[in-house]
């Protein structure tokens, strides 16, 4: 053997090495490798030409806001509608805008019918004598009787719903919706026909807040970052109350006559606006916020208003506002992330409901950038209950008691498959309207 001096293990190892060498030699791998190399060499091109980069013209273009250009970020995402290209919509000029719908050229009869209905139902005065807060048992029963049907779903605006308002009429359901491109859609739900909805364009930017006037519902006030307008159906015009450089965020009336309003601004300040002196604000006040998203006036003591910003939620007295150095009457602390909204309860104003990105309701409210942020709203008929959208499946709108107890969930496996970020409740009837990110409204 010649390897008698090796141990049994080393002899076994040497044998395995020899047998493996004979096996690989039999495969003639060196010859196969040579043939493969020859084939690859023949197919190899003589040289690789890299494409020349396109010559870019040396031109300096001013950087413009994507929001002003009406262009969405180029990221594909579900539930996001196709957005208008830049320049598709003309810029809305300052001053009054005629109440002419976008589709006026096609047929004006449907528009006339809609505006006539709005005018007619605004002349009827509602009786507030029987307004009261029902007990929770009867309230829950009324909620369970509210349903969504196919005919009560309609695409009313072209893009994401950012605000809604419902006419207080008890005879006709008239809903207004504002989207992110400055459109306002009016829908006569009671009409039941395709002609019941029309789109108007009174703003350039998103319509973030809308209210029918509490004393005259023939007036629909709407706010976008650059203007506050009043749609007057009796004159068929959207009057301009005041303008701003992309600063307005929300507003609320300081009195039942709707003559004055408190307006929140994205830079954190608030302004007092008098509609009787259009084009200017009576006062601009720094309240110490970095951003003011929503403002809301106390339902009983109108001198108090609630402002919500980044992590700030404070109550201020409008009588003591000054340009700088304002101190809140009360501060609602504990928010650790961005606050989307804050509203007083509708009857006494003794409660405040807020929506914050910290999910303190243990409620899935993380909408992301493609959906309008949730706003929890009080049912104006019920002091102790509020409604808010949900990211849960099946898609739903939840009703909570002020204790945090879930009272009811509005959903429909057949007809509701999207998130309703913005909701509005009728002040007298059992009617709920939910708006989604594609401009569609759902009426329970």
UniProtKB/TrEMBL annotation:
Residues 43-53 have a biased composition (Basic residues). It comes from the Eukaryota. GO terms for molecular function: DNA binding. One of its GO terms (biological process) is regulation of DNA damage checkpoint. The keyword Repeat applies. One of its GO terms (cellular component) is nucleus. Residues 39-60, 74-94 are annotated as: Disordered. Keywords: Repeat, WD repeat. Gene3D superfamilies: YVTN repeat-like/Quinoprotein amine dehydrogenase. InterPro entries: WD40/YVTN_repeat-like_dom_sf (IPR015943), WD40_repeat_dom_sf (IPR036322), WD40_rpt (IPR001680), WD_repeat_DNA-damage-binding (IPR050853). Specifically binds 5-hydroxymethylcytosine (5hmC), suggesting that it acts as a specific reader of 5hmC. Interacts with CUL4A and/or CUL4B. Belongs to the WD repeat DDB2/WDR76 family. This is WD repeat-containing protein 76. It comes from Pachyramphus minor.
């Amino acid at each position: 053997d010649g390897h008698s001096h090796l141990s049994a293990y080393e002899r076994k190892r040497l044998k395995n090495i020899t047998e493996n060498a004979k096996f690989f030699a039999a495969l003639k791998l060196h010859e196969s490798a040579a043939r493969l190399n020859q084939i690859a060499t023949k197919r190899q091109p003589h040289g690789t030409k890299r494409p020349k980069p396109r010559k870019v013209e040396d031109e300096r273009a001013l950087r413009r806001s994507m929001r002003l250009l009406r262009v969405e970020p180029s990221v594909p995402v579900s539930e996001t509608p196709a957005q208008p290209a830049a320049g598709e919509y003309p810029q809305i000029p300052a001053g009054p805008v005629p109440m002419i719908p976008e589709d006026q050229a096609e047929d004006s009869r449907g528009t006339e019918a809609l505006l006539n209905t709005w005018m007619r139902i605004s002349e009827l005065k509602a009786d507030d004598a029987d307004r009261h807060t029902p007990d929770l048992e009867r309230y829950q029963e009324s909620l369970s009787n509210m349903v969504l049907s196919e005919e009560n779903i309609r695409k009313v605006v072209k893009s994401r719903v950012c605000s809604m308002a419902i006419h207080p009429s008890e005879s006709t359901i008239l809903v207004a919706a504002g989207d992110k491109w400055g459109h306002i859609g009016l829908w006569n739900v009671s009409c039941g026909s395709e002609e019941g909805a029309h789109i108007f364009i009174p703003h350039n930017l998103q319509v973030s807040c809308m209210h029918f006037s509490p004393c005259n519902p023939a007036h629909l006030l709407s706010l976008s970052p650059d203007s506050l307008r009043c749609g007057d159906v009796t004159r068929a015009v959207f009057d301009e109350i005041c303008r701003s450089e992309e600063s307005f965020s929300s507003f609320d009336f300081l009195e039942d006559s709707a003559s004055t309003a408190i307006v929140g601004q994205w830079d954190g300040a608030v302004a007092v606006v008098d509609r009787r002196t259009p084009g200017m604000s009576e006062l601009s006040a720094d309240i110490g916020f970095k951003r003011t998203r929503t403002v809301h006036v106390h339902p009983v003591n109108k001198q108090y208003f609630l402002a919500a910003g980044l992590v700030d939620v404070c109550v201020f007295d409008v009588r003591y506002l000054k340009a700088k150095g304002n101190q809140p009457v009360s501060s609602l602390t504990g928010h650790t992330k961005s606050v989307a909204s804050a509203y007083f309860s509708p009857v006494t104003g003794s409660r405040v409901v807020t929506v914050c990105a910290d999910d303190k309701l243990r409620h899935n409210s993380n909408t992301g950038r493609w959906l309008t942020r949730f706003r929890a709203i009080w049912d104006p008929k019920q002091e102790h209950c509020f409604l808010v959208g949900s990211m849960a499946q099946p898609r739903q709108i939840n009703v909570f008691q002020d204790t945090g107890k879930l009272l009811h969930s509005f959903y429909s496996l057949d007809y509701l498959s999207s998130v309703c970020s913005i909701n509005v409740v009728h002040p007298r009837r059992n009617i709920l309207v939910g708006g989604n990110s594609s401009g569609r409204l759902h009426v329970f």
